[in-house]
Amino acid sequence: MKQKYNVLLRLLRPVLHIGLVIIVFYVMYRIRLFTDLIPGVQLRIPIINYQENLAFGIIAAFAFVFTGIIKGLYELHKPIQRYFQTFTKTWLYRVIIITFIWYFGQGFVFFFWISRFIIILGVFGSFIALFLFDQVRNYLEAKRHREWNNKILIVWSDTMESYKAIEKIKNGFSFKTEFATHKEIRDIDITEYFIVVAVGSFEKEILQSIFERVRFSDNTRFYHISEWFFLEDVVYSPENIDNIIALEYKHSKLDGRSIVLKKVVDLIASLVLTIIALPFMILIAIIIKIDSRGPIFYKAKRVGKYGRLFNFFKFRSMYTHMSPGYGGKEADELYQKLIQSDANVRQGILPKIKNDPRVTRVGRFLRKTSLDELPQLFCVLRGTMSLVGPRPHLPEEVKNYESWQKRLLSIKPWITWYAQVFGRDSLDFEEEAKLDLYYIQNRSLFLDAYIILATFWVVFKGK
């Protein structure tokens, strides 16, 4: 909850920056209207168009924020390294951009002359205003971190290079720093730490085991200083920690603002799709009730992000008395017989029964067209699922996961998934898991859009 509060405040920062820059340019505009700025000297008041100067101030504000996003000034989940250098570079690039716009925009975009006084003082005034604002904000954030007891854990190995690196970086953080060896870390809950830094050379298995514990935490970031390995299902990103190059290990490329944007897209898209699909869902509900006895929806507990259970909904596609969870002991015994029979065409964690006798006539159509998945849109609206990602599995299935397959639980389960587009039910679980892990590493908004569009095509072709 504390981390979400901190992220929300950081999300508001660019908005406040935009407001500050616009206010500064407006103040400069009002000052320029005075004729006696210099005592005893009456300056000529040029024709200054308010709308054009306000538009220029808005452009200058967005230019700063856009440049700041590119330069990493608006990190959401980690401290900003070398803040003053990053801020100054952002400001200088913004000066170049708006100077270019001002010079070449005269007579084309700006038909009236934009005062050089407003531009020069607006540029330097915004530097002072933004810098002072950020200094206050950074101080308050550091104070919150101390109050929340946010800590950094440095895990070191028994090598000379680790001692040298620790001596250099131990005072480089403004947070409380604790130290541990890779042997002591076994008894430590590293998800309680804001940052975990592994310093020195580690065996690959040890480094992998440390990262696996960080993988299932939204609040902990993991860095490695020294030699590094190609760990499994890891995304590498270079980072500067007190002038030392470290590698940040992440389970996904999607980070920071992209995660927030993805949540917003999921919410809006699922809301729109729910409104569009609602008449069809009502019609399907009526047909299900006419076709066979039993509830309209199939409800079960599924394993979600970080292994948390959530309520999972689908349109019922089986006869109630034969459905696991509804038909009792007889339904469970029937399921076991089908798994052990020749009708099971996919062995392993996820069996597939060909011509399943438990499925109703309407259920066969719903499954073939994937319309039975529509109620899962409500799960997306509740925040327990999303639109694209790994398939949500039953608790008894997850119990049989191998250790590497449990990495699928590092993100939310989703309605459609990468493996569905590239193989659907023809894949065994191991192949499906590998495809889904590839998706987790490489997921992006563009990849999600591609999978959603490809899903419609796969369903249309009846695959």
Characterise this structure.
The chain is an alpha/beta fold and 463 residues long. The protein has 3 domains: 2-147, no CATH class; 151-250, Rossmann fold (3-Layer(aba) Sandwich), CATH 3.40.50; 257-317 and 359-460, no CATH class. Helix content is 50%, strand content 12%. The protein contains 14 helices and 10 strands. It has helices at residues 2-32, 50-71, 83-105, 116-147, 160-169, 204-215, 257-291, 328-340, 361-369, 376-382, 395-398, 418-421, 429-442, 445-460, and strands at 151-156, 176-181, 195-199, 221-225, 235-241, 244-250, 297-303, 309-315, 386-388, 414-416. Strands 2-1-3-4-6-5 form a 6-stranded mixed sheet, with helices on both faces. Helix 2 (50-71) runs antiparallel to helix 3. The longest helix has 35 residues, at 257-291. It is flat, with a radius of gyration of 29 Å. The model has no long low-confidence stretch (mean pLDDT 85).
How much of the sequence lies in strands comes to: 5-15%
Structural class: alpha/beta
- Overall tally of structural domains: 3
Shape: flat
Note poorly predicted spans. none
Distance between the termini: 42 Å
Strand order of the largest sheet: 2-1-3-4-6-5
Number of strands: 10
Radius of gyration: 29 Å
The level of helicity is 40-55%
Output the number of helix runs: 14
Q: Mean pLDDT, as a whole number?
A: 85
Main sheet characteristics: 6 strands, mixed
Helix and strand element order: HHHHEHEEHEEEHEEHHHEHEHHH
Primary descriptors:
Rossmann fold, 3 domains, 10 strands, 463 residues, alpha/beta, two-stranded antiparallel sheet, 6-stranded mixed beta sheet, 50% helix
